[in-house]
Amino acid sequence: MNRKANRKSPIAMIVSISIIILIAILGSIYYKFEVAQTEEKSVKPNEVENVETQNKTNETEEPLKQPEGNGADLPSSDKNGEKPPTNSGEQPNQQPAKEAPVTEEVELENGYIVGQKPATEPTFVKGVLIANKKNPLPATYNKGEDPKARAAYEKMAKAAMEDGLELVAFSGFRSYDYQKTLYDRYVKRDGKEAADRYSARPGYSEHQTGLAFDIGEKGREELWLTNEFGQTEAGQWLAQNAHKYGFILRYPKGKEDITGFMHESWHFRYLEGELAAKVYEAGVTLEEYLGIQ
Ligand SMILES: [Zn+2]
């Protein structure tokens, strides 16, 4: 009955075809709208990320932090409406908020802070003068050898002599300029990466404090500045007794990641009062003892 009716009624056919076409048109409009939205969501964040990573340093750690701050929330999801999403003037509202979490990341090169400004004042922590890879001295810090450190060294050397060991402090105070000469020479010889492990950049040497000595044994100069010295009787004596005279072995074995320098059996640092003994007994580095970097 119905089929017959349909065939016989062109008006009904036209109406139903029109309805189908109308549904198809509405469907395609809706589909386009959906695609436009999802495309926007998936494409925009990448673009934003790229721009941001160019602005920042291009180091490896940075990108990890970025996704949380930007991307997802940037091309706002509720900014739909009828028109395809164009950039209106409102976006800046959201930009400042996402910048905030991506700060304070310090970039290091061989333990040094990249782009660190030259120091204008020396760093004291609990009264202790610090010179390490994170805490440089001003180029103008040029007080020479500390008399107390020298006196303490002489006392220690005398005690060692009584035990039959003749110590030599073959390197003590070094000025900023002299350290620069040394460091530049080592870089030229071994490259920056290697030089940074055993020689400080100018301003970062503990020798500039006037409180540090490189110590060896007289007659065994071939072992100066080598860790073989640590195996000798004199090296052992120092490791076990220096703290009694106010000195610590500044760069112990296995603490390179904390002190920033490889083990140096010959480098001793003077600390006033009982501090050297306390650090020695705690069995830690100066950085650990003071709770600094
Ligand atoms: Zn030294």
Automatic annotation (TrEMBL):
Molecular function per GO: carboxypeptidase activity
Annotated segments matching region Disordered: 40-103
Record's keyword annotation contains tRNA processing: no
Keywords: Carboxypeptidase, Hydrolase, Membrane, Protease, Transmembrane, Transmembrane helix
Species name: Solibacillus silvestris (strain StLB046) (Bacillus silvestris)
UniProt keyword annotation of Cell membrane present: no
GO BP terms, alphabetized: proteolysis
A Pfam family that the UniProt record links to this protein: VanY
TM segment ranges: 12-31
Coiled-coil portions: none
UniProt-listed InterPro entries: DD-CPase-like, VanY-like_core_dom, VanY/YodJ_core_dom, Zn_M74/Hedgehog-like
Residues covered by the D-alanyl-D-alanine carboxypeptidase-like core domain: 146-271
Polar residues: bias regions: 85-96
Protein name (Swiss-Prot/TrEMBL): D-alanyl-D-alanine carboxypeptidase
Domain of life, source organism: Bacteria
